[in-house]
Amino acid sequence: MKRWIRACRRGIPASVVACVLVAILAVPAVSHAEDRLVVYSGRAERFIQPALDAFQAESGMTVQLLTADSTALINRLRLEGARTSADVLITNDAGTLERARELHLLRATPIPDLEDTIPDQFRAPDDSWIGLSGRIWVVVYNTTMVNPDAISSILDLGDPRWEGRIAIPNAGSVYLQTGVSVIREINGDEVTIRFLQGLKKNAGSFVYGKNRQIVAAVARGEVAAGLVNHYYISRHLAKHPEAPIAMQLTDQGDEGMGMILNAAGVGITAHTKHLAHAQALVRFLVASKGQRLFAHENKEYPLNPRVPAASELLPLHRFRVASVPLSHLAQLRDPTMTVIEDVGLR
Amino acid sequence: MLPLVYVTVAAVTTDLAVWRRLWTTRIPELLLNTLALSTGVAVIDLLLGVSLAWIVTRYRFPGSRTWEWVFILPLSIPSYVLAYTYTHLLKRGSTLELLWQSVAGPEATLVSPFSFAGAMLVLALNTFPFVYLLARSAFKNVNVSFEEAALTTGASRMTTFFRVSLPLIRPSLIAGLFLATLYVASDFGAVSLLRVQTFTYAVYQQMTGRFDNDAAACLSLVLVICACIFLFGERRFRRQSRFYQTTGRYRHPVPRPCTPLAALLMTGYLLIVFMAAFGLPGALLVQWTTEALVAGTLSSAFVGYVWNSVSLSGLTATAAIVCSIPLAYVASGRRTWASTVCVQGAYTGYVLPGPVAALAVLVVVLQLIPQLYGTRLILLLAYLVHFLPVAVQGMEATLQQITPNLEEAARSLGARPVRNFVSVTLPLVRGGLLSAWILVFVQCMKELPASLLLRPPGADTLAVRIWLEASEELYQLAAPPALLIVVMTIPVVLLLMYHDRHAL
């Protein structure tokens, strides 16, 4: 040991020189290479990488991905201003994209033939962001414990008879926030607050940070039902085909508010220096190959109506979706957060 | 110091409504959680650390010398790595649970890793070496005459242990517990992966979940105030409880031999603790890494992550040493008002937990040099603010050992200050310089929150990759970088142990 230390001591000048070299290499000027595209993404890497890889192979461009929480990315874009190196923003929540648009972080970009690919209800009014894949917020239930007829509306889960029997996402979940926004918009604050108070009481300590845990808790029978995005059910069933879980289609019929749909989407940043390349990426993602790679990997609904959903999903046109446009989600979010915090959801 | 001021200003100028909202909804819960977690971990640490230290220092059985240094190894596993291996070890249907069910019946379940108890277990396994190390050296140095006196007056071994031995090493225990508690209160990696709401995690959530940093600054301020109260309390407590070795009849304790059965039992206990804190997680990492290598999932990008981590850490370590030399000079020299301010200012960076330090650097950079944001330099700056105290501390100790005579002699021979420094002081402190460099380097390799929050595109570090992959529970993908960090940290930890032994 002693000898080793002594040897190290002798190596100090060398190591200092090495460190200085490292210093010179480590801080290259932020390059704006022509064929490099920087994508800020709030989506799990494995659900976006296949699409990006295919795009890179097709176009010969290099895509550099920065993965972080969607809201953190918006904060970042705002702080970076015109200096940003980001060209494209992808998030799993249309509300965040709309917020980015309001903050002038996105640029309204004409994409040829957009009309033929993504319907307008899934786009920003000025096309500064475009929905790519849809996810619906559903009730997952344990088939051995629950008669699905008992749940005709998501709001039923606020009922006292579910006490100790449901699992919910925590207050930080964007899916919960979107869900609550839609419920507020259609039913008003009073109904929503009663629902959330019931939800809080019924869920007790079954509050999870990840949808996957909720589905797992339902599958194990720890709770009878839970609120999740639909694809987590497919994902669990793919791993455990015999799991006693199913999805309940709620709020249908003429009286119902419809299913709550949110979308992952893409926008081009206001300060991009590679507009043509960024447009090429967006065009790729809305066309059929990109749609398949983007949506199917995660069992989401491709929003391009010509691209069929994965075979195990109930087709999008077979059920009713709540009528709140995606672009409204942003302005609903802040009051929704206040409601959620007032009720004291964790 | 500057970052701290900025956080304070940001927090104080925040709208009262934000404060009220935080006060009614978050702060009490966070305070309670953080406090309860720290206390729980401290209790477990105390039990583990003291019992282990007592066994290895006071009994002689096959392998007892090896066990003595083995328990420092858990320090080489970053908390988030331990947390993520435990999400696997404790999950439903795991081997560990089946094993437990065969003992305790089919209905038995283990604690969920994603719970308060889970986080407490993980953090305790991660921090008990602090208490263990200090207790060990205290037990080795305590004057056995006191214990023998107790025994001869008819006290049982049990009574002697609780009434004499333990009180004698109280200062060491307090110091160890203090380190562990500070570690828990500022830990981000484990609590964020296990999703337990503590202050550091809440600051991070506020920074990433809201569109402004006001709430984050408020929470940071509360945390910093708590940390300061804690630091102050610790200082006072230490000043009050000081023991002095009586000279003269001092004798070292001699380890007692013990019966084979006792030896077996003790080895079993040591083995269980070791496996839980290091053996099992380490084995899992090796297994997953092999699987990843065999499956070929390790992409070429991995080399890039290694390079990012190594270059950034190396750079920061060098910068920290360069900056720390004058500071340490000041600190080890005569105490003046100005020198105290300088040095204590540098120390504040260490009191700030990772996300808070990141927030502080972010706020300062945006105010003063916004061009830095989005480059690697901001990461470097954040690391530097956070880990400069580590370097200063290391350098201070070394510089204090140099007698001024040598420098004065050189000066009397006509050496100018610069020459004096280069050819007299520097060669003398090379060893300390190197260990300080390595310490900072390793801390930077492990750093998570600032890297997560501030990295520019394409600058993912190993720690960031571990966290991202582990959040998705992609165990095989997170393992190679984790293993690499652990392997790089082990020599450093052993080096510390080596210093520790010689400091005695």
What does this entry look like structurally?
The complex is a heterodimer of chains A (346) and B (504). By secondary structure, chain A is an alpha/beta fold. Chain A has two domains: 36-134 and 262-315, 3-Layer(aba) Sandwich (D-Maltodextrin-Binding Protein, domain 2); 135-260 and 334-343, D-Maltodextrin-Binding Protein, domain 2, CATH 3.40.190.10. In chain A, 42% of the residues lie in helices and 16% in strands. Chain A has twelve helices and ten strands. The termini of chain A are far apart. Chain B is mainly alpha-helical and 504 residues long. Chain B has helices at 2-12, 16-25, 27-58, 64-70, 79-89, 95-104, 116-141, 144-152, 157-168, 170-186, 189-194, 199-209, 214-240, 260-295, 301-332, 337-351, 354-368, 376-400, 404-412, 417-446, 449-454, 462-471, 475-503; strands at residues 59-60, 256-257. In chain B, α3 (27-58) runs parallel beside α7 and α14 crosses α23 (475-503). Chain B has two domains: 1-291, Orthogonal Bundle (MetI-like fold); 297-504, MetI-like (MetI-like fold, Orthogonal Bundle), CATH 1.10.3720.10. The longest helix of chain B is centred in the middle third of the chain and has 36 residues, at 260-295. Helices cover 79% and strands 1% of the residues of chain B. At the A-B interface, α1, α2, β2, α4 and α8 of A face α12, α15, α18 and α20 of B.
Strand content of chain B: under 5%
What is the residue-mean pLDDT of chain B, rounded to a whole number? 80
CA-based shape of chain A: globular
The rounded distance between the terminal residues' Cα atoms of chain A is 52 Å
Q: Compute the gyration radius of chain A: what is it?
A: 23 Å
Reading the helices and strands of chain A in chain order gives: HHEHEHEHHEEHEHEHEEHHEH
User: What characterizes the major β-sheet of chain B?
Assistant: 2 strands, parallel
